[in-house]
Fold Mos1 transposase HTH domain-containing protein.
Amino acid sequence: MQPFLKQHFAVKFWVKLDKTSKETHDMIKEAFSGATVGRSGVFEWHKLFREGREESKDHDRPSSGKTNQNVSRVKNLLNC
């Protein structure tokens, strides 16, 4: 499970209650004291859910930067 998935669901819930991004961030800090997602993360999730996003899991990052050719180049550079 993603480390911040519970907080992700909480943001989705508070968006449905018409809370602002700032209110949502404040409630996240209060409810999940300790390891919480940062302000920019809460604001981004808030925006996505307000715009109609339904999924609560992050999309995977593109792996286009990791090719066999790039891996070989880096290995060669490190072995110089």
Observations:
- The chain has a mean pLDDT of 82.
- The helical segments are 5-16, 21-31, 39-50, 68-78.
